[in-house]
Amino acid sequence: MKVAHIVCTYPPYYGGMGNIAFQMASYLSLFGHKIKVFTPQYSPKTDKKELKDKQDYVQRLSAPLQYGNAAYLPTISKELDKFDLVHLHYPFFGTANLVRKWKLKNKNKPLVVTYHMDTRGDGLKGFIFKIYTKFWMPKILGVADKILVSSFDYIEHSDARKFFLANKEKFVELPFGVDTKIFCPRQKDDNLFSKNNLQKDVSTLLFVGGMDTAHYFKGIEILLQALFLLKENNVKIQTIFVGGGKLREKFVLEAKGMGLENETHFVGHISNEELPSYYNLADLFILPSINTAEAFGVVLLEAMASGVPIIASDLPGVRTVAKDGGEVFPVKDFQALVSLIKDYFTKKENIAVYKKQVRDIAVEKYSWSSVVDRLDNIYSQLVDKR
């Protein structure tokens, strides 16, 4: 089967949607499918060194109009005519409408849409998102043959709730996955401790996420406030922040202003090859996201597969995963986050058990091989019905 995936970001750009598309493409190819991933050409020469050990399924299309992760790909319709099935990763402003237009002209070709997350923004951007969501989102979802969601919990609380309740037969709950061979428990790398000025005998927290305006919802400020309180209470903890972007320096300065320069380590963007080793440094993973723009949190699965328990915001979708691998706290409540962190490290005799439990859950429930097996069945049913 020839399958096209369409997504607004793709490796080496660090972002959940692009990485999910890459993993789906990789595993679907093992089922014998011919996969192509269409994404914007953000730069004339894309750095592929992070993909050197894997087949690259991407075809980067020229985007005459771009803003952030939004892009208009005028040639997409012509490309899609070559495929048996099309899979759109939503949201993709500027191109999702073109996919809808293509589908209206090709009603016999199946269209699958993964609804990744709601769109959020401040000021004019937020107003545009709101109008788009109200007018265009139902039209785009309306032409899909199947709509995949990471959890029904999320979609029931999302901007697509009304559409979901009226069209439940279109929806399939399919969690995102994790490569449990790449992300797995290992010995801590002594070189990374020295490279990043970390102390081996100090409890270590980990945050992984983009630090640009597109990832404003990650809640780094909440974690910094919690770290400040922990220091005030003489709790000795160090925190690694993995992720790059234009806001990174802002967070570094905020941490310094709070007197946390020795407790926080902003290591910047880490390659996909190195990332698993950073998870192995952690005793506890934190995802303090502040709104439903965070729909699932693939990083939670990466932590669990690495044998690292998690604490995350009590958000729809996110909590579905977090309760499998740890604890949740009320959104933006940094004091509750402090309490959970303190509780975790006061029960040191249980930590080894927690680590094994979260690893086992990741393997049994969230491995990409089992997730994509279900996706393959969905594709086959749609193509067979044509």
Automatic annotation (TrEMBL):
It comes from the Bacteria. Residues 14-154 form the Glycosyltransferase subfamily 4-like N-terminal domain. Residues 190-356 form the Glycosyl transferase family domain. GO terms for molecular function: glycosyltransferase activity. It holds the Pfam family Glyco_transf_4. This is Glycosyltransferase subfamily 4-like N-terminal domain-containing protein. It comes from Candidatus Magasanikbacteria bacterium CG_4_10_14_0_8_um_filter_32_14. The lineage of its organism: Bacteria, Candidatus Magasanikiibacteriota.
